[in-house]
Amino acid sequence: MRVLLVDDHELFRAGLALLIKELFPDAELLHASTLSQGVDLAMTEHPDIVFLDLELPDGHGCDALAQLKDARPSLPVVVISADESVETVGRCLELRAMGYVPKSSSPEALHAAIVAVLSGGVFLPAASIAGLRRTIDTHEAQPRESGKAQPNGSVEPWDAPGLGLTPREYETLAWLVRGLPSKAIASKMGLEDITVRKYISHLLAHFNLRRRTELIVLLADKGITLGTVSVTDPSRERGSSSAERQRTR
Q1: The domain boundary residue, chosen from 134, 151, 175
Q2: Both 93 and 148 in a single domain?
Q3: What is the pLDDT of residues 204-238, one digit of tens each?
């Protein structure tokens, strides 16, 4: 497992690295103190997961997350920040982060975040889930999966029947959770963008939700994991992102 740490505070980065090595002795750690260094390492060193601070010398706030996800759309990014506001957590989910770990968190939370994200799930602290549910008014929404919620701490992936989904809907959900926009998902699945958008609409209706952010909060709350998916070669992702930006200008 390769873990990329992007934080401009060397002491914090060193402490985080020691903690990760204690939790995962075989982990290989990559360090970046700026956003540009982080993007370069994300493109060349093929990390499995990134921990990203939002306040960097060359990337302020959520802009740093947006730039990193633009460079590597399918790369799992977990924000690690001193900002614990519900607004910031929600914004990071909208920008397709797969997790959010406050810097005040315990080592157990860090461990849970890595395990959840690498298993195709989402990690959010309990306080953030409660706050987001109040903010986006999903407290009455109940998933219609046919299976029962798994015990806390379980990382056994769900399957399509267990969630009441078709195989194509399940695959769409797996890519959606990983942070890909609909056009990129369509490319991965060999489908038209409009078809993927229909799948996403079906998913939201299936879980009785309105937006992707609500779906991510639900998955984090229920501890639902979807397993791993193949990752596009970083150079191809960069080309796809550039092409898409050209088309939308």
Answers
A1: 134
A2: no
A3: 999 999 888 899 999 999 889 988 765 444 444 54
- One-letter amino acid for residue 81 of the chain: S
Q: Which of 132, 182, 177 is nearest to 157 (CA)?
A: 177
Question: Do residues 98 and 76 make contact, with C-beta atoms less than 8 angstroms apart?
Answer: yes
Going by C-alpha positions, the residue among 99, 97, 107 that lies closest to residue 16 is 107
Give the pLDDT confidence of 134-159 residue by residue, as tens digits.
876 644 445 444 333 443 445 567 87
**Based on the domain organization, do 14 and 99 belong to the same domain?**
yes
Shared domain check, 145 and 118:
no
Q: Report the distance separating Cα 185 and Cα 179, nearest Å.
A: 9
Rounded Cα gap, residues 138 and 135, in angstroms: 8
Gap between the terminal Cα atoms of the chain? 37
Asked if residue 217 and residue 122 are part of one domain, the reply reads no
Domain endpoint, select from 115, 134, 153: 134
47-74: per-residue pLDDT in tens?
A: 999 999 999 999 888 888 998 888 888 8
Same domain, 109 and 162: no
Q: Which two tokens stand for residue 244?
A: 């898409």
For residues 162 and 144, what is the distance between their CA atoms, to the nearest angstrom?
Answer: 10
Q: How far, in whole angstroms, is CA 31 from its chain's centroid?
A: 20
Task: Name the DSSP letter for residue 150.
Answer: P
CATH code of the domain in which 121 resides: 3.40.50.2300
**Which of the two residues, 125 and 30, has the higher pLDDT score?**
30
74: containing domain: 2-134
| pLDDT of amino acid 133 | 83
Structure-block tokens of residue 9? 């505070």
How many Å apart are CA 247 and CA 230, to the nearest integer? 26
128 and 154 in a single domain? The answer is no
